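Weekly sync, protein design subgroup
Attendees: M.S., D.O., the rotation student, P.L. (late)

Item 1: inverse folding check
M.S. brought a backbone from last month's batch and wanted to see whether the design step gives back something sensible before we order anything. D.O. pointed out we never logged the input encoding, so this time it goes straight into the notes. Structure tokens as presented (369 positions):
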């Protein structure tokens, strides 16, 4: 059972309790599962009982005790423990991380993508279909003639398309030729047409303009500087995006990806390859949770037209992956084992997610740094 499957299992338990008359609430659209916090136990935990307590007119602990019998014994769950004021804690079979890594390696850079166009209410709930700014069967996005607005529109369109949403983009004026040459945005490159006023029904993007010209930063650092902050925040435009050290989030993301690719090459030289399996290294649960959260982050970034959510998520994945990477290869005379192959598969999965996410932001993910 993957974390995403666990989330659906908990949601199903809530619906069963409602149908049985044991809870009088409207089931939430989704349930969030995370690594257990202080005082928790097991592999994952959820605060859904705390969220439902007030509408149910009961204490969180009582709600958790109602839900627990619907979860105990479910395939993939070995134990369910209620802790604190009403947190549900889950212990899963070892197959959970294995299935997640297998799925990522199978899907490659398209992990988290939706195959085919979304339609109906599912598309509305997950990727924003049917909301303001949606045209017939797709999204209409308009931006002002500003370098940050054009870059944000390009990234939003990429993310929406990853979720199966057809997109048409329009700018109020012709993008500057240097924007395309350096940042990769122009007519036919993130901008489908030019015109003003916006097409009726279009979503208009007006992020806070950059306080300085991002072009001297180059394509990758320039796009990151414009996309990493939320649209309502003023971006920082400076050499901090170019430094090759840990203080630079973009460097950490690209370094974690490049290091994961190097580990695969180095392992091949040692005669072994990635093979998904149980991994017990410190901090692995945080990395698995971040990787499992990737499809939800893509859907939320599409729905909210917020590429900054994806950028910040990539930093989370990289920061969770970096402590694992030094443990992947055998040391000294140590022979490659199943544990090494499993850690290598997890490292490769992390690098795959980072590469796919950077691509959606229009940023290169080099194999060498």
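Designed sequence read out in the meeting:
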């Amino acid at each position: 059972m993957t974390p995403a499957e666990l989330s659906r299992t908990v949601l199903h338990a809530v619906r069963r309790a409602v149908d049985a008359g044991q809870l009088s609430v409207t089931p939430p659209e989704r349930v969030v599962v995370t690594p257990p916090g202080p005082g928790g136990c097991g592999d994952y935990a959820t605060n859904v009982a705390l969220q439902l307590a007030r509408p149910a007119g009961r204490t969180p602990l009582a709600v958790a005790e109602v839900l627990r019998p619907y979860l105990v014994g479910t395939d993939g769950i070995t134990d369910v423990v209620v802790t604190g004021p009403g947190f549900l804690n889950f212990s899963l079979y070892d197959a959970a991380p294995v299935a997640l890594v297998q799925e990522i390696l199978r899907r490659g850079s398209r992990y988290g993508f939706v195959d085919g166009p979304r339609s109906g209410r599912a598309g509305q709930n997950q990727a924003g279909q049917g909301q303001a700014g949606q045209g017939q069967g797709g999204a209409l996005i308009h931006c002002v003639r500003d370098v940050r607005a054009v870059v944000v529109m390009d990234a939003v369109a990429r993310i929406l398309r990853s979720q199966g949403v057809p997109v048409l983009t329009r700018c109020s004026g012709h993008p500057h030729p240097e924007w395309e040459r350096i940042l990769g945005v122009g007519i036919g490159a993130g901008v489908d047409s030019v015109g003003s006023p916006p097409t009726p029904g279009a979503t208009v993007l007006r992020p806070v303009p950059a306080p300085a010209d991002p072009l001297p930063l180059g394509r990758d650092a320039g796009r990151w500087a414009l996309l990493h902050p939320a649209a309502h925040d003023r971006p920082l435009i400076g050499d901090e995006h170019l430094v090759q050290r840990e203080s630079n989030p973009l460097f950490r993301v690209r370094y974690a990806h490049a290091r994961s690719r190097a580990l695969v090459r180095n392992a091949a030289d040692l005669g072994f390859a990635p093979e998904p399996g149980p991994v017990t290294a410190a901090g692995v649960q945080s990395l698995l949770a971040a990787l499992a959260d990737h499809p939800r982050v893509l859907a939320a970034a599409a729905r909210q037209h917020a590429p900054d959510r994806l950028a910040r998520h990539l930093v989370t994945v990289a920061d969770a992956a970096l402590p694992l990477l030094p443990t992947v290869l055998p040391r000294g005379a140590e022979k490659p084992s199943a544990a090494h192959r499993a850690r290598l598969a997890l490292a490769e999965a992390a690098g795959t997610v980072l590469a796919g996410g950077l691509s959606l932001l229009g940023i290169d993910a080099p194999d060498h740094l």
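Discussion: The longest helix spans residues 338-360. Residues 119-136 have pLDDT under 50 and may be disordered.
Action: P.L. to compare against the previous round before Friday.
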